[in-house]
Write a sequence for this structure.
């Protein structure tokens, strides 16, 4: 069974975080399945289906938390249809392309909705780097609003630098702060705007580690916390009681080998994400509208029904 090198490269890039951020990971996975389908030399429909399932599994095992990844695989593989290799191939190519288009469309639709929350002159505090959150800022700028941003650097991987650069390129004045300064600067912020890797049926939001502490502080300071997340961030398995796995990353993202030798034998933990309970979130902005976190389950039922079986496992 030959996996196309693109599938392997995509999987490695997701695992190493060369490709990162939930929406980008989902798009990359769909694109990799399209390449696998387009270039497959399988001669029987059974071999073709098996190959695509193996590709799906390889992509799925890369990082555990962003549900956009299994949702992307599910979207494409559920639409794999036909009695011959040619029709199967066409169905996968079509579904992957359609998925990418839907992703782009959803992001601009949610951007327009999120922008309505932002007033001219507002200051937005960000955490990590979220393309969905940035879409809201971009849409507000397109409406002629002036915004400023306080950007948390987001240890240990410093995705705040990506956000700072993106906002500067949009013409937004940016103040970059260390994560520990967030509470102090909340007094200057009108909104906390973050993305999501997964949203559970009870409205809990899984996002970059530090989001939950930021939300608690924002609540205490009276600053609304808004989560910008396309519906591919909704985690269908949480409707049936499953929990979201939080990725634990290498300790070397936190301490170098040199630091390690200096500190000696201590445990180092490096969770990549945390869970913000719904009571600390003001709104979840999706392409289907803005929701209080507690009512997101209604949207989940509408979109996913009860079918959560994974088509790449067999
Ligand atoms: C990225 C992260 C982002 C969400 C949403 O974590 O937590 O906030 O993925 O991003 P990592 P987007 O850097 O570990 O992948 O809105 O672009 O989907």
């Amino acid at each position: 069974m030959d996996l196309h090198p693109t599938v392997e490269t995509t999987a490695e890039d997701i695992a190493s975080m060369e490709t990162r951020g939930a929406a980008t990971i989902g798009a990359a996975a769909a694109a990799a399945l399209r390449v696998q389908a387009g270039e497959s030399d399988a001669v029987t429909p059974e071999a073709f289906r098996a190959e695509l399932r193996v590709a799906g599994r390889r992509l799925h095992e890369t990082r555990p938390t962003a549900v956009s990844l299994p949702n992307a695989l599910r979207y494409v593989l559920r639409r794999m249809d036909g009695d011959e290799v040619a029709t199967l191939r066409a169905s996968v190519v079509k579904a992957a392309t359609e998925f990418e288009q839907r992703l782009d469309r959803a992001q601009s639709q949610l951007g327009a909705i999120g922008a309505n929350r932002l007033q001219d002159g507002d200051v937005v505090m960000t955490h990590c780097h979220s393309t969905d959150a940035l879409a809201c800022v971009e849409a507000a700028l397109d409406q002629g609003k002036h915004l400023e941003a306080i950007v948390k650097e987001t240890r240990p991987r410093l995705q705040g630098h990506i956000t700072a650069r993106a906002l500067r390129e949009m013409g937004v004045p940016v103040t970059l702060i260390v994560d520990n300064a967030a509470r102090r600067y909340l007094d200057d912020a009108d909104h906390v705007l973050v993305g999501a890797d997964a949203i559970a049926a009870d409205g809990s939001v899984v996002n970059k580690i530090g989001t939950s502490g930021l939300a608690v502080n924002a609540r205490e300071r009276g600053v609304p916390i808004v989560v910008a997340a396309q519906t591919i961030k909704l985690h269908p398995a949480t409707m049936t009681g499953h929990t979201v796995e939080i990725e634990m990353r290498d300790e070397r993202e936190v301490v170098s080998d040199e630091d390690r030798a200096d500190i000696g034998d201590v445990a180092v933990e490096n969770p990549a994400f945390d869970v913000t309970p719904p009571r600390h979130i003001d709104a979840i902005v999706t392409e289907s509208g803005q929701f209080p976190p507690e009512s997101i389950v209604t949207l989940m039922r509408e979109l996913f029904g009860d079918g959560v079986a994974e088509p790449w496992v067999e």
About this structure: The chain has two domains: 5-109, 116-304. The chain has a mean pLDDT of 96. The CA atoms of residues 11 and 61 lie 8 Å apart. The pocket of ribulose-1,5-diphosphate is lined by residues 20-24, 66, 128, 130-133, 159, 195-197, 207-208, 272 (CB under 6 Å).
